[in-house]
Amino acid sequence: MSLQSRKIALVGGGQIGIALALMITQKDHAEVVIVDLPGMVDPIKGKALDIMALRPHAGVDVEITATSDYAEIADAEVVIITAGIPRKAGMSRNDLLEINKGVIESVAKQVAEHAPNAFVVLSTNPVDTMCQIFHKTSGFPKERVIGLSGALDSGRFRLFIAMETRFSAKDVSCMVMGGHGPAMIPLTRTATVGGIPIQTLLSEEKIEEIVDRTRHAGTEIVQLLGHGSAYISPASAIMEMVEAYLYDKKRLISSSVLCEGEYGIDDCFIGVPCVIGSGGMERIVEMELTEGEQTQLQHNYEILQENLEKLE
Fold first, then answer.
1. Is 180 a catalytic site residue?
2. pLDDT value, residue 26
3. 162 and 297 together in one domain
4. How remote is the C-alpha of 216 from its chain's centroid?
5. The domain boundary residue, chosen from 129, 147, 165
6. DSSP per-residue letters across the chain
């Protein structure tokens, strides 16, 4: 599948940004613009040149531009924001709250000025709160602001189920809702492998272990790396969301989006199942939750509200 004649802007040339540039390049013929701080432009140009050197081998012709000038993102159909300080060992996502708030406010103003019609995907942590800040600062409609949460968390949930059952991850279907943090809600009740409920395949104890590992998978990776955080799987999950938008795939993907009464949540970005197509976040799908699941979701909502109050 080609991304011919598309322009995608990446705000942030760190590990996720570069992984995204590589993945977009492999889709062929997308113009990629990477925006970062002036002192980072030359190193990013070097990485961009390295990626473009794939062209003779991959049979693609992709232009990647690195700049500190936001005017270069004009007419971008998609803006992916990965800018901000990543987690380090011992840090929670919420430890980044104050630091990354200023980053996202600044980016939001620039994107609103230079790419006012773009579909915006954020991965900057804590992502649910950063989406709220971007939405408020930019004035973008809720349909065009979305955060990476469930697409990544559900993928990890699928992986761990596949690892324990020893079946292909392709046959695992499951979803994670709530905030992108340790209180997230892996929905075990609806998780299946080839249509078979995981309760048939795994003990309750093993399922609880999978749930716990899913909730702390990001931290596990941070601790193992020793420096930095996950970047390959987040980039891949973002690409799923971006392609759903560009190709009107009508994908049902749990993402951080603005709820306005859905699931009893009002004026808050939180991970819920939604349809992504050419209209952006086209609609939130409200599934019936058990009392326990609804209680957990409400708890997530309260955590996110507390984060917003800290920033007021």
1. yes
2. 84
3. yes
4. 16
5. 147
6. ---TTEEEEEE--SHHHHHHHHHHHTTSSEEEEEE--GGGHHHHHHHHHHHHTTHHHHT----EEEES-GGGGTT-SEEEE--SPPP-TT--GGGGHHHHHHHHHHHHHHHHHH-TT-EEEE-PSSHHHHHHHHHHHH---GGGEEESSHHHHHHHHHHHHHHHHTS-GGGEE--EEB-SSTT-EE-STT-EETTEEHHHHS-HHHHHHHHHHHHTHHHHHHHHHSSS---HHHHHHHHHHHHHHHTT--EEEEEEEEEESGGG-EEEEEEEEEEEETTEEEEE------HHHHHHHHHHHHHHHHHHHHH-
Considering the domain architecture, whether residues 272 and 126 belong to the same structural domain is answered as: no
Residue that terminates a domain, selected from 147, 167, 189: 147
By residue range, what is the domain housing residue 128? 6-147
Residue 4's pLDDT is what? 57
Residue 283's beta-bridge partner residues? 275
Neighbouring CB atoms inside 10 A of 221's CB total 17
Residue 57 β-bridge partners: none
Tell me which amino acid residue 203 is.
S
- Which pLDDT belongs to residue 284? 99
Pair (67, 141) in one structural domain: yes
Q: What is the pLDDT of residue 228?
A: 86
Q: At 81, list the tokens.
A: 């924001």
Catalytic-labelled residue, pool 114, 135, 180, 227: 180
Mean pLDDT per segment of 10 residues, for the chain of length 312 residues?
76 97 81 96 97 85 94 97 80 79 97 98 96 98 98 98 98 97 97 99 98 97 92 98 97 98 97 98 98 98 93 81
In terms of Cα–Cα distance, which of 262, 256, 252, 253 is closest to 298? 262
Does residue 1 belong to any structural domain of this protein? no
Rounded CA-CA distance 242/234 in Å is 12
116 and 243 both lie in a single domain:
no
142 and 162 both lie in a single domain: no
